[in-house]
Amino acid sequence: MELAKLSLTELRRLQSKVETEIRRRSDTARRDLLKKIQKLAAEEGLSLSDVIPGANVAEKKAAAPKAKRVVKASAKKGTRVPAKYRHPEDATLTWSGRGRKPLWVEGWLGEGKPLDALLIQQAA
C-alpha cells in the first residue's frame, strides 16, 4: 500500500482503523496478561490484590466486559433548598441563593443595597 497515493480522506479513515485496532489489541493483551497473573497467584493460594496492592480495581475492570456508561439522575434532583433570602416587603418572595437571581434581588442590588440585608434570620 502506497500512502502517497491515498487521498486525505482515505488516510484519515486508515488512521482511524489503525488506532481502533491498536486499542483492541492492547486491551486484549492487557486482559490476557492479567488472567495469566491471576492464574499464577491462584496457584500459590493468593489473590491478585495480595500480590499487587490495589489490584482489585484492575480485577474488576478485567472481569467485567466494557459497557456504556449510564448516567443516573441525582437522588436530590428536584428537592427544594430552604430559602436564604426574603424580599423586605413581600414575605412570599424568597430565594435560595442558587441559580439565577430573581428580578427583585437584581433590583435590590441595582439600587446599591447589600445582599446581606435580605438574609433570612435563622432561629438559633
From TrEMBL:
Q: Which Gene3D superfamilies match?
A: Histone-like protein H-NS, C-terminal domain
Kindly indicate whether the keyword DNA-binding belongs to this entry. Answer: yes
Domain DNA-binding protein H-NS-like C-terminal: start-end pairs: 75-120
Transmembrane helix in keyword set = no
What's one GO MF term for it? transcription cis-regulatory region binding
Subcellular localization is given as: Cytoplasm, Nucleoid
Give an example GO cellular component term for this record: nucleoid
Q: Per the similarity annotation, which family is this?
A: Belongs to the histone-like protein H-NS family.
Task: Please name the PANTHER family in this protein's record.
Answer: DNA-BINDING PROTEIN STPA, PTHR38097
Q: What is this protein called?
A: H-NS histone family protein
